[in-house]
C-alpha cells in the first residue's frame, strides 16, 4: 500500500471513530435532557402485578389521561410469547379502557428488525397516551429499541416523545429494569459477590449494560425484596460509581413525576445510598445507607427528602414492640432483608440485626457474606395505621466477606 493510501486509511479510521464517539455522546445527552424536561410520568412496577391491584392500574389509567381519553400501547418485546400482553390488555379493559384503546404494539424478539423503524409502528406509539413494557428478558427490549450502533430507533424516539409530551411510560419486572441507565441483570446477590460484575451478557457475573434511561434518579432493580437483590444492587452502584439505587418489590410500584417518587401497591421500595460507602481491600462494603418506604410514602431524589404518608406515626425509641432477634442464615432469601430491617431492628430494642448468605462445596466449606444492619443517630422508624412497622429511614448496612465451615456435632 502506498504512503498516500496508508495515510488516507488512517485518517478515515480516525474520522469514523470520532463520529461514533460523538454519536454516542449525543445519544447519552439526549436521554439525560429528555428525562430532565419530560412532562410525563413513570410507573415502575417490581413484577408479579396482580389483576386486583386497583391502586396501580387506576394510577396508570389516570396518568394516561383517564378512562375516556387514555390510549394504552403494550410492548410484548421482553416476553417469549403474547400471553402477558394479552392479559394486560384484558386487565386494562376490565378497569374501564375501551377495547380499541388498548393496543398491543407488535415489536417482538423475532420481528423487531422490521418493526422498530416502521412508520405504522411509530404511528401506533405516537398515538398512545400511555405505554407499557411487559416482563421477561430486559435485554430483548434494549436490543430491539436501540439500533446496532447504539442510536435510537424511530420506535424509541417515539416512546421518548410520548413521555416528553406528558404521557405515561410503565413497565413491570424486565419492563422496570430498562427504566434506568445502566440496567442490571443475570445474577443473584450471592452470585454477584462470588462472580463480580461483567459487561458481557455471555459471561458469568452481574451484567451491567445500557438501559433506556427514562428514570434519572439512579439504578432500578425489581422483584427486590422477594428475590433478595439488595446485595447485587450495592455491588452495581459501587462498581459504577453511582450513589443511589432503587429496589421496587413485587406487586408494587414507584410512580415518578419529575423528581418525586410515590410508592403504590402491596409492598414497598428500598432506597440504597452508597454516597458514603467504602470498599475495603478485603472486599467489605461499609456504611451503606438503607431506607425502606411503603404505600403512600414519597421520596424526592433531587432534594433527598422523604415525606411519609399522613397515616404513619413515629416508632418511639425505647418503646419498640420486639425484644431481641436471631441470626438470619439466609439473608438474601425471600423478604429476609425486609424482616431484618423492620421486625428485627426498627421495631426492636436491639441496636443491630444480622444475617448470613453463603454457599458450600462438597467438603462443607465455602464463602459468603455477613450482612449487618445497625441503628444510627439518624435512623427513624414508622408504624402504619395498623401499628405495624412499615418504613425505615437511614439504617446503616455493612456487608463483610466471610469463610464458612460446617462441622457435624458428635
Which structural traits does this protein have?
single chain, 410 residues, alpha+beta, Rossmann fold, 2 domains, ten-stranded mixed beta sheet, nine-stranded mixed beta sheet, 11 helices, 22 strands, disordered N terminus, Cyanophycinase, Peptidase_S51
Task: Give a topology summary.
Blueprint (H helix, E strand, L loop, with lengths): L2 H35 L3 E5 L8 H10 L8 E4 L7 H12 L7 E3 L7 H4 L3 H8 L3 E4 L4 H8 L8 H11 L3 E5 L1 H4 L5 E3 L3 H7 L1 E2 L7 E4 L9 E3 L8 H11 L3 E5 L3 E6 L2 E6 L2 E6 L4 E2 L5 E10 L3 E3 L4 E3 L5 E2 L21 H11 L5 E9 L4 E10 L5 E4 L5 E17 L5
Parallel strand pairs: 1-5, 2-3, 2-4, 4-5, 7-8, 9-10
Antiparallel strand pairs: 1-11, 6-8, 10-13, 11-12, 12-16, 13-15, 14-15, 15-22, 16-17, 18-21, 19-20, 20-22, 21-22
Helix pairs in contact: 5-7, 9-10
Describe the overall structure.
The chain is α+β, with helices and mostly antiparallel strands. The chain folds into two domains: 39-307, Class I glutamine amidotransferase (GATase) domain (Rossmann fold); 313-377 and 397-405, no CATH class. It is built from eleven helices and 22 strands. Strands 9, 10, 13, 14, 15, 18, 19, 20, 21 and 22 form a ten-stranded mixed β-sheet that branches. The longest helix has 35 residues, at 3-37. Its EC number is 3.4.15.6. Keywords: Hydrolase, Protease, Serine protease, Signal. This is Cyanophycinase. Belongs to the peptidase S51 family.
Amino acid at each position: 500500500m502506498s504512503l498516500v493510501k496508508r495515510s488516507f486509511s488512517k485518517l478515515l479510521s480516525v474520522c469514523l471513530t470520532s463520529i461514533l464517539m460523538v454519536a454516542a455522546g449525543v445519544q447519552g445527552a439526549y436521554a439525560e435532557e429528555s428525562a430532565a424536561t419530560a412532562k410525563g410520568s413513570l410507573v415502575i412496577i417490581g413484577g408479579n402485578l396482580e389483576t386486583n391491584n386497583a391502586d396501580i392500574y387506576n394510577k396508570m389509567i389516570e396518568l394516561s389521561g383517564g378512562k375516556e381519553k387514555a390510549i394504552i400501547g403494550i410492548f410484548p418485546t421482553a416476553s417469549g410469547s403474547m400471553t402477558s400482553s394479552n392479559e394486560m390488555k384484558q386487565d386494562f379493559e376490565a378497569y374501564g379502557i375501551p377495547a380499541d384503546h388498548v393496543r398491543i404494539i407488535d415489536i417482538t424478539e423475532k420481528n423487531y428488525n422490521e418493526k422498530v423503524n416502521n412508520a405504522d409502528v411509530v404511528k401506533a406509539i405516537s398515538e398512545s397516551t400511555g405505554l407499557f413494557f411487559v416482563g421477561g428478558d430486559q435485554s430483548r427490549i434494549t436490543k430491539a429499541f436501540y439500533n446496532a450502533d447504539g442510536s435510537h430507533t424511530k420506535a424509541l424516539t417515539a416512546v421518548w416523545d410520548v413521555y416528553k409530551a406528558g404521557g405515561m411510560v410503565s413497565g413491570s419486572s424486565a419492563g422496570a429494569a430498562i427504566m434506568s441507565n445502566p440496567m442490571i441483570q443475570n445474577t443473584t446477590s450471592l452470585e454477584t459477590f462470588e462472580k463480580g460484575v461483567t459487561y458481557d451478557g455471555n459471561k458469568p457475573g452481574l451484567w451491567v449494560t445500557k438501559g433506556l434511561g427514562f428514570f434519572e434518579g439512579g439504578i432500578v432493580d425489581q422483584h427486590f425484596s422477594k428475590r433478595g437483590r439488595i446485595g447485587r444492587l450495592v455491588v452495581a452502584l459501587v462498581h459504577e460509581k453511582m450513589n443511589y439505587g432503587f429496589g421496587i418489590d413485587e406487586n408494587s410500584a414507584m410512580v415518578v413525576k419529575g423528581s418525586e417518587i410515590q410508592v403504590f401497591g402491596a409492598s414497598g421500595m428500598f432506597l440504597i445510598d452508597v454516597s458514603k460507602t467504602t470498599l475495603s481491600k478485603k472486599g467489605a462494603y461499609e456504611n451503606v445507607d438503607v431506607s425502606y418506604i411503603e404505600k403512600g410514602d414519597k421520596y424526592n431524589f433531587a432534594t433527598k427528602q422523604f415525606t411519609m404518608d399522613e397515616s404513619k406515626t413515629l416508632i418511639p425509641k425505647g418503646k419498640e414492640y420486639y425484644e431481641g432477634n436471631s441470626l438470619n442464615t439466609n439473608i438474601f432469601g425471600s423478604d429476609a432483608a425486609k424482616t431484618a430491617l423492620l421486625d428485627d431492628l426498627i421495631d426492636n430494642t436491639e441496636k443491630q440485626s444480622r444475617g448470613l448468605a453463603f454457599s458450600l462445596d462438597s467438603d462443607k466449606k465455602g464463602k459468603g457474606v455477613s450482612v449487618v444492619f445497625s441503628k444510627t443517630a439518624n435512623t427513624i422508624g414508622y408504624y402504619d395505621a395498623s401499628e405495624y412497622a412499615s418504613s425505615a429511614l437511614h439504617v446503616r448496612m455493612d456487608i463483610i466477606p466471610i469463610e464458612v465451615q460446617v462441622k457435624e456435632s458428635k
